Every structure is written in C-alpha cells, then in structure tokens.
User: Fold this.
Amino acid sequence: MVTAIVIFFVLGYLCIALESVFKINKAVPALLMCVVCWTLYSTGYAPQAGIDSAEVSGQLLEHLGDTCEILFFLMGAMTIVEIVDANGGFFFVHDALATTSKRKLLWRITFMAFILSAILDNLTTSIVMIMVLRKLVADSNDRMVFGGMVIIAANAGGAFSPIGDVTTIMLWIRGMISTQGVISQLILPSIVSVVVAAFCAQIYLKGELKLTEREPEAPGAVGSSDRMLILCLGVGGLIFVPIFRMLTGLAPFMGILLALGVLWFVSEYRCTRNALFCENSNLKVTSLLARIDMATILFFLGILMSVATLQLTGVLNSFGIWLNEVSHNNHYLVTGVIGVVSSIVDNVPLVAGCMDMYAIAPAGDFAQDGLFWQLLAYCAGVGGSMLIIGSAAGVVVMGLEKISFGWYLRRFTWIAFVGYISGIGVYALETFFF
Assistant:
C-alpha cells in the first residue's frame, strides 16, 4: 500500500510539473492526489498498521490544522496587497523607476523587486513589477529581459525574509528559522546572488528607452492622502506580523488577520464618509476578495496534505536517511541538490518533505536557525529561478509576458545558476569566519 501511495504521489507530481503541457491547472492534480493518497492511507495502510479510523481522523485534522496556518496567512497577505494595489498604493513604484537608460532601469527594477519581495512575497511582487514594467517599457523583447530579472530578484528577496516566500513562511511557522536568524544570515548571500545575476543580465540591454508617462487617474480615484494611508497600513501591517508573533507568541496568521482587519476597517470607514468612494465598487474589500487566487490556495492545500501521507507512512524518513548516507551528511550538497530540483518541480512540496524528513533539534545544524534550515531556505527559494517553471514568480511572469520555457532556458538559466552558486559561496564564508 505504501508503494501505491508513492506511485500516485509521483503521478500527481508529474501532472503538476507538466501543467503547461496538459493545460490543466496544477490545483486539479494536487487536490486529486491529496484525496487518493489519504484514501489509500485510511483504507489500506492504516488497518495494516493497526491504526483505527478515529486515530486516522485525528491525524487528518492535525495535519489540516498545520496546513491551514499557512493558507490563512497567504489569503490574508494576498488580500492586503490587493487592497493596496486597487487603491493606487503602488503608483510610487512607477514614479521611482522611471528612467531612459535600460541598464539603469534594470538595476532599479532589480532593487525594487528584491526589497518588495522581502516585505510582501515573490508572487505578488512579480505581478506588481510586471504591471509597472508594462507602463515603462513598450518593447516586448526588452520587457522579457526585465521580467527575467524580476524573477531572480523576487526569489532572492523572498529567501532572506520570513514572509517573503511560501517556503520561508513554512519554515518560520514551524519554528525551523527565526526572523532575526534568517535575516542576519541570509541577507548577504541573497544580495550577492542577485547582484551577480544583474551584472550578467546587463549584456542583454544596451541603449535608451523612450520614457512613458504615467496613465492619468480615473475620475473618482482615491486621493493622494488616502492612498498613502492605505499604503502605510498595508505594508506596515505586513511588516508588523513578525513583531506581533514575538510579542504574543501566537501563530503568524493571527498577525496577518489583525493587519487585514485594521485595513478593512479603515476602508469601510472611508466608504461611509465618501459617497464617491462607495459608488466605486471595485475599491470595496468585498469586491477585491474575488481577485484572490484561490486556485493557488487549493494547490497548496492539496500538495501539503499529500506530503503528510508520505510522512505518516515513513517514506520521507527513509528517504532522508538514504540522502544523508549518499551525501555523507554534507548539508551543502543535500540542500544544493534540493535547490536545483526546486527549479524543475515546485519548491513547496520539497521543503514540506524536508521539514518532515528532518526533525528540529535542540542544538547543532538542525536546531532553529541551524545551518541546514538556513541553507534550505536559501536554496529552495533562489534555486527556483534556474527554470521559469521553478517558482511561483516565474510562472506568473511566464504567463503575463508570454515568455517561453526555451527562451528563459537559453537566456537566464545560466545567470540564475551563477547567482545561486555565488550566494552559497558567500554563506559558506560567513559560517567559516563568523
């Protein structure tokens, strides 16, 4: 029965990896894989292992609770960003990036994507940056180059922040990394990886751009003071989440719900005092909720719950033992390989599997902020940039700018790899000297 669970998991994984070939949203195989794996576990493995139905139900609810912590955090963060974006809070990005030099714009795009990804997340940052690029760069070929750099910068920026990437969120929520630890140890490797990549990407850009004007605001648009208020509350709320956790000890999703509640309250208050705002239903939070990418949320639900069956059957533990034996407990080799693999398949199940394969220890490389967990956060995040399908940021940019898999493979895979290796080297030097 364990073999059957693994087979269905692998088949589902292949369908997810080949989403662009089958033209089926990856949430579909993830959900089906989740149900099939749990059904096989409940009706086949559990009876053979002497586990009764009540205990199986308890295990299901326990893993669902762990998964929902991540899902509610993501939904809250995505809603906050939608509110800020709909109210024009990201107009400052357009104004800050405007320039006629292609190479200057490349560095500005890189810096902005890197910073925003650490504060928001790499998926949302990629969407915002591509929308801004469409207003700044008319030539689609140039925009594809900028888009490739957005992927690398967004993934690198998310790797050193506890809220910048789904994988770091997962590690942070489970206590493998702390806010102070991951920022202090991974910020320099992340910066080096993106700077090296940007220097390499410059070879594709020469000459000047025709500066475009920002589109005029529609009648009834949010005023500048209200826009700034929404921006400060939204971004400030996201930044406050780690602080809230340190102060209260509660799970991060409670902090994100607090930030969302405050922002929602302010939006409703503005609505009651501004009749013109009320008429613009596109700015109401209840309307903005429809923009949340529920397919992505359901994908995470399916894949994380599927990985739970591999943990319960002991498959992940056996694989971890084998991987350690093959690599002779070389954490750089193990996490480095995981980073490369994360560019082929989604890094969410990879990190989820590692979290279940290796238990957190009171001291050593597997302690909180230990070498293994920090390398895993860096490699799984930055490594996904090596192929365009290897990260949420890459998939989004691929869809928005119609970048082909082959184009990115020829132009940016080597750039992402050079930056990836450079960051690992810097982290190794950090641990050696400090």
